[in-house]
């Protein structure tokens, strides 16, 4: 399989920690020039420094993915700095847990602005840049709960179901123009999001979430990064419009 990204420009949203950070480092190790984005400039600078220390090329662009003008500027900066765009990993997302009858409208707006509009806005500007670069591959971060339900997390679940639909529709629109669009759907991963949602990895809530995965544990961020690289590479050249579940058996129970 060809998992080399030499001379390829890769854009990653939500790249300051967790899955995004692990994927940025993995792409760089495979030869890519990586553009990272996120809202936390200090963490973005740390990831760039780590990539540079390993001999890679990387750039951080502070971006609020919910703001279309900032997304447009992110893609423009990517192209102007590295000369094109070949791969995008639309990973930025936020979590939410709230009983359905208590969800405030502001919470709906917060989650959908990032998880849904953020993906749409990214696609809106990434696709034209890729067409100018001769095609490419896009991976969106969905979730295992984009395939099933989960009590107490209706807004988050709905947002990830939306990502699934957006991925399929966009894949069909550009399948014959040299752009493949897929999604990765993780189970619960040991990241900062887990800390916010359930407390530490040793908390009762985290242990309960772990018990929901037949494989017997939670995922590590690199275990999500690896399928993302495969979806982005020529090794998956006949795959588009798909959502790859990386969930430790969560959804097959």
Description:
InterPro entries: KR_dom, NAD(P)-bd_dom_sf, Sc_DH/Rdtase_CS, SDR_fam. One of its GO terms (molecular function) is oxidoreductase activity. Keywords: Oxidoreductase. Pfam families: adh_short_C2. Belongs to the short-chain dehydrogenases/reductases (SDR) family. The chain has 253 residues and is α/β, with parallel strands linked by helices. It has a single domain (9-189, 220-248), classed as NAD(P)-binding Rossmann-like Domain (Rossmann fold). 46% of the residues lie in helices and 15% in strands. It contains 8 helices and 7 strands. It has helices at residues 18-29, 41-53, 68-82, 105-132, 154-174, 192-198, 204-211, 221-232; strands at residues 9-13, 33-38, 57-62, 87-90, 136-141, 179-186, 243-246. It has a 7-stranded parallel beta sheet with strand order 3-2-1-4-5-6-7, sandwiched between helices. Strand 5 (136-141), helix 5 and strand 6 form a beta-alpha-beta unit. Helix 1 (18-29) crosses helix 8, helix 3 (68-82) runs parallel beside helix 4 (105-132) and helix 4 runs parallel beside helix 5 (154-174). The longest helix has 28 residues, at 105-132. The two termini are 31 Å apart. The mean pLDDT is 93.
Summarize the structure.
Keywords: Oxidoreductase. The chain is α/β, with parallel strands linked by helices.
Strand and helix layout:
Elements: E1 9-13, H1 18-29, E2 33-38, H2 41-53, E3 57-62, H3 68-82, E4 87-90, H4 105-132, E5 136-141, H5 154-174, E6 179-186, H6 192-198, H7 204-211, H8 221-232, E7 243-246
Parallel strand pairs: 1-2, 1-4, 2-3, 4-5, 5-6, 6-7
Helix pairs in contact: 1-8, 3-4, 4-5
């Amino acid at each position: 399989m060809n998992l080399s990204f030499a001379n390829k420009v890769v854009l990653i949203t939500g790249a300051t920690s967790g899955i995004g950070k692990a994927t940025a480092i993995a792409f760089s190790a495979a030869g890519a020039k990586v553009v990272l984005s996120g809202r936390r400039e200090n963490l973005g600078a740390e990831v760039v420094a780590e990539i540079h220390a390993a001999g890679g090329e990387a750039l951080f662009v502070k971006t609020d993915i919910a703001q279309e003008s900032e997304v447009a500027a992110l893609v423009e900066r990517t192209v102007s700095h590295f000369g094109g765009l070949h791969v995008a990993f639309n990973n930025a997302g936020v979590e939410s847990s709230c009983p359905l009858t208590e969800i405030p409208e502001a919470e709906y707006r917060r989650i959908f602005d990032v998880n849904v509009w953020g993906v749409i806005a990214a696609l809106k500007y990434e696709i034209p840049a890729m067409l100018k670069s001769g095609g490419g591959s896009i991976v969106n971060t969905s979730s295992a709960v984009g395939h099933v339900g989960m009590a107490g997390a209706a807004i988050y679940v709905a947002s990830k179901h939306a990502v699934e639909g957006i991925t399929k529709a966009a894949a069909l629109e550009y399948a014959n123009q040299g752009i493949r669009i897929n999604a990765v759907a993780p189970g619960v991963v040991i990241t900062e999001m887990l800390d916010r949602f359930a407390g530490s990895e040793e908390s009762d809530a985290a242990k309960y979430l772990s018990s929901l995965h037949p494989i017997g544990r939670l995922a590590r961020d690199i275990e999500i990064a690896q399928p993302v690289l495969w979806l982005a590479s020529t090794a998956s050249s006949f795959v588009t419009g798909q959502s790859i579940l990386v969930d430790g058996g969560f959804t097959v129970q």
